[in-house]
Amino acid sequence: MAESPRSDVGSPAAARLLAALGGVQDPELRRPITELGMVGSVSVDDDGAARVAILLTISGCPLRGTIVDDVTAAATAVEGVASVAVDVGVMTPEQRSELKAGLKKRTAPFTEPGSLTRIVAVASGKGGVGKSSLTVNLACAMAADGLRVGIIDADVHGFSVPGLMGITQAPTRVDELILPPVAHGVKVISIGMFVDGNQPVVWRGPMLHRALEQFLTDVHFGDLDVLLLDLPPGTGDIAISVSQLLPGSGLLVVTTPQSAAAEVAERAGAVAKQTGQEVLGVVENMSWMDLPDGGRMEPFGSGGGELLAARLSKTLGVDVGLLGRIPLDPRLREGGDSGRPVVLAAPESAVSLEIRRIARTLSRRPRGLAGRSLGVTPA
User: What region holds the MIP18 family-like domain (predicted)?
Assistant: First the structure.
């Protein structure tokens, strides 16, 4: 992507230093800084004093300190380096243009026929069923398994993903390109990152569609294995926009055990019959609470998940499975309040184990080749 940084080619220590910097990743782009053209020069003198010139994408880069610390740590570990000085500069407009061009060439848009990104839109019939908490925990569970994961907080009016993920920083802009913040190994974008304080977003249909479109075109997620979308409850504008902008997306429908909640959630899943989307399955949340004496209490009743799966199977004419039943656990709420999802804060809890099982079911689900280019031309 960029020219090799200047170095003292006659110095073995400088060569080792440059190689070590190849292991330092930009915390936003998740790519080696040497590959991104962020290393301006490296040198090591006879006394082992190393000097590294780093070029930031923008002057106000919010992760400047992280990059400097990572470069210093990598350089200090190099044989023959006794001390490290890091000089920080900023890319020229020409260097930024080269960076953007390289990123665009490396990025596979999710709408391209050859894209291998699995897109999961998490939906519900009504609010309050734990859809957003499930979304962030599924994402963190997948990332912990080594997958490259992104989240789009598509619930524009009721955004909550940044808080649930503990994200306080704003996205970085490189001209018109937006770099999403990364938390717990997951890239996240939300309209909540662009509003002041807790101000409401008062938008109507066309603006909602445009916001989602911008998230998909202007935000650099890079190559993802899974993209999760936290949809607003119901079957409104955003649900329709997702089906138009991401026709290959699948729906994961969340309900509680209460039969009334399952009836409402059925509408959110049945929209797939009109949009042509696949319903990946049903998740029942708040299924029961484990009591100190070893018993269980079902405060919201039982059977809602099975009922919803059966009704959607009948409506859509395909088998829609109940992927899992998640128990009530105060640690799920505590993880959301602290910005550390429960699958990371309490990985051995029953709620975490069930969410991890659901995440692995979704990530391992076979993908058909219908409509995909195989890159083969008949002889």
Answer: 16-86
